[in-house]
């Protein structure tokens, strides 16, 4: 079974997907980490982020304990995935159709063999259009920027709230307007605005829809 959770940066989709996965005994597959992995590989090796060749990249992901690791050409890029520089550039790398093909292949192979809750931008619309349950998780930009700002502070980074808000607005623009698999709500996705909800409330809502699905399928 596939549960798709799409939405913009900082909407909380990854946090709630993680909790729902644990409750259901599913794997939480974070598709953004694959874009981040390719981005980290390009940045760390000082390669052109606009020039990705399929034959140059072997992308793999696996779980070590609870942690999803991302390997490019056999090297583990997991320690770099959450760097702010990787976040900003991952949106540019994600525009490239070749990158998207590499990531699509990797996630389709992994998730077709497992019960997964997958978070991303194009899961319900493009990667798994037949997912049994789909959510579109949204949130106003001020709240999203505040959440990301607190995360950055925990990492002792000195990036300002204003700068993060600007980055988020720019990344939203790119994600929503790219030609291939843009960020958009699938017609059959359940819309959840998390601006005024706690993590527990969002999880509770998702679980309710999951159990309702079970009832309608019986
Ligand atoms: O955690 P955050 O929401 O900031 O980003 P992410 O989910 O880790 O994704 C990083 C970037 O990868 C996004 O800005 C998107 O441009 C791209 N992405 C995508 O295009 N499609 C996906 N299914 C997931 C991520």
Describe it.
This protein has helices spanning 13-24, 32-44, 84-93, 97-112, 123-127, 141-154, 161-177, 199-217, and strands at residues 2-6, 27-30, 59-64, 67-72, 75-76, 116-120, 133-138, 190-193. The protein is of the alpha/beta class and 218 residues long. The strands form two sheets. It has a five-stranded parallel β-sheet, with helices on both faces. Strands 3-4-5 form a three-stranded antiparallel β-sheet, with helices on one face. Helix 1 crosses helix 8 (199-217), helix 2 (32-44) crosses helix 3 (84-93) and helix 6 (141-154) packs across helix 7. The mean pLDDT is 95. It binds cytidine-5'-diphosphate. Cytidine-5'-diphosphate (CDP) is lined by residues 9, 14, 31-32, 35-36, 87, 90-91, 94, 120-123, 171, 175. Cytidine-5'-diphosphate is lined by residues 9, 14, 31-32, 35-36, 87, 90-91, 94, 120-123, 171, 175.
The general outline is globular
Rounded to the nearest angstrom, the radius of gyration is: 17 Å
Largest sheet: 5 strands, parallel
With strands numbered from the N-terminus, the spatial order across the biggest sheet is 2-6-1-7-8
> How much of the residues is beta strand, in percent?
15-25%
Q: Tell me which oligomeric state these chains represent.
A: single chain
The end-to-end distance, rounded to whole angstroms, is 15 Å
Give unreliable regions as ranges. Answer: none
Specify the number of helices: 8
- Structural class, by secondary structure, is alpha/beta
Average the pLDDT over all residues and give the rounded result.
95
List each distinct ligand once. Answer: cytidine-5'-diphosphate
The total strand number stands at 8
Output the helix-strand order: EHEHEEEHHEHEHHEH
User: Can you give the helix content as a percent range?
Assistant: 40-55%
């Amino acid at each position: 079974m596939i549960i798709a959770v799409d939405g913009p940066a900082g909407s909380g989709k990854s946090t709630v997907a993680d909790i729902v996965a644990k409750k259901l005994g599913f794997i939480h597959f974070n598709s953004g980490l694959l874009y981040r992995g390719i981005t980290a590989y390009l940045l760390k090796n000082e390669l052109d982020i606009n020039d990705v060749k399929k034959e140059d990249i072997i992308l793999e992901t696996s779980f070590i304990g609870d942690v999803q690791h991302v390997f490019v050409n056999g090297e583990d890029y997991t320690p770099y995935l959450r760097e702010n520089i990787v976040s900003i550039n991952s949106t540019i790398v994600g525009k490239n159709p070749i990158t998207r093909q590499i990531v699509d292949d990797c996630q389709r192979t992994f998730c077709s063999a497992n019960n997964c809750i997958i978070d991303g931008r194009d899961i319900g619309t493009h990667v798994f259009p037949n997912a049994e349950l789909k959510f579109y998780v949204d949130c106003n930009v001020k709240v999203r920027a505040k959440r990301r700002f607190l995360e950055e502070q925990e990492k002792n980074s000195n990036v300002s709230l204003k700068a993060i808000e600007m980055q988020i607005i720019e990344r939203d623009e790119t994600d929503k307007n790219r030609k291939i698999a843009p960020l958009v709500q699938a017609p059959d996705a359940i819309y959840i605005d998390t601006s005024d909800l706690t993590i527990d409330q969002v999880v509770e809502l998702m679980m309710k829809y999951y159990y309702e699905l079970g009832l309608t399928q019986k």
